[in-house]
C-alpha cells in the first residue's frame, strides 16, 4: 500500500464528508424501512429536496465555510461572517440557494446577524445540541490535531 501524503489524507477526509452528504441528501428524513426498500447504491438526486445528483446540504456548505476560514487562520468573527453569507447569499451551496436550515443553526446565525459575537450565538438549552455541528467539525479537528488537548477543546467549543 502506498503511503498517502498529509495533503491527500486531508483532502480525502473532506471529500469523503461531502460525498457522503451528497449520497444521503436524497433520502434525508426517510425511514430506515424506506431506505431498505430503495437502498443507496450510487449518486442520485431529486429525493427529499428535489435536487440534482451530487448536491450537498448545509452540513457540507458550513464545512466548506469552516475550511475557508481556517485557511486564513482561526478567526471566529470571520467564520461567523461566512456562515451568515451561506444563509443569506447561498455561499458555498451547490446551486446558489440555501435550503433545509435546522432550527438551532437558524437561531445561532440569526443571533450573529443581530451582532451577537459568534462565541455567544449558540443555544444553551438541552434541545440546542443537534448533530449538525458534528458533521461540520472535521476541518477544526484537522487544523488543531497537533495542538495540546486544552487548546483543541477550546477551539472546538
Topology summary:
Elements: H1 6-24, H2 32-37, H3 58-71, H4 76-89, H5 103-113, H6 118-121, H7 138-143, H8 149-156
The rough form would be described as globular
Instruction: Figure out the total of helices.
Output: 8
Describe the sheet with the most strands: none
Radius of gyration: 17 Å
What do these coordinates show?
- The chain has one domain: ADP-ribosylation/Crystallin J1 (ADP-ribosylglycohydrolase fold, Orthogonal Bundle).
- 52% of the residues lie in helices and 0% in strands.
- It has helices spanning 6-24, 32-37, 58-71, 76-89, 103-113, 118-121, 138-143, 149-156.
- The chain starts with 5 loop residues before the first helix and ends with a helix.
- The model has no long low-confidence stretch (mean pLDDT 91).
Question: Any key phrases for this structure?
Answer:
157 residues; mainly alpha; ADP-ribosylglycohydrolase fold; 8 helices; 52% helix; globular
Amino acid at each position: 500500500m502506498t503511503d498517502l501524503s498529509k495533503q491527500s489524507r486531508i483532502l480525502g477526509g473532506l471529500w469523503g464528508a461531502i460525498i457522503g452528504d451528497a449520497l444521503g441528501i436524497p433520502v434525508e428524513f426517510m425511514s430506515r424501512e424506506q431506505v431498505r426498500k430503495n437502498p443507496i447504491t450510487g449518486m442520485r438526486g431529486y429525493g427529499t429536496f428535489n435536487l440534482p445528483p451530487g448536491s450537498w446540504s448545509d452540513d457540507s456548505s458550513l464545512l466548506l465555510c469552516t475550511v475557508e476560514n481556517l485557511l486564513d487562520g482561526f478567526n471566529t468573527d470571520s467564520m461567523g461572517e461566512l456562515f451568515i453569507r451561506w444563509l443569506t447569499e447561498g455561499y458555498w451551496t451547490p446551486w446558489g440557494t440555501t435550503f433545509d436550515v435546522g432550527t438551532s443553526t437558524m437561531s445561532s446565525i440569526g443571533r450573529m446577524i443581530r451582532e451577537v459575537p459568534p462565541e455567544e450565538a449558540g443555544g444553551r438549552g438541552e434541545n440546542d445540541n443537534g448533530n449538525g455541528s458534528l458533521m461540520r467539525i472535521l476541518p477544526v479537528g484537522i487544523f488543531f490535531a497537533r495542538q495540546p488537548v486544552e487548546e483543541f477543546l477550546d477551539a472546538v467549543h
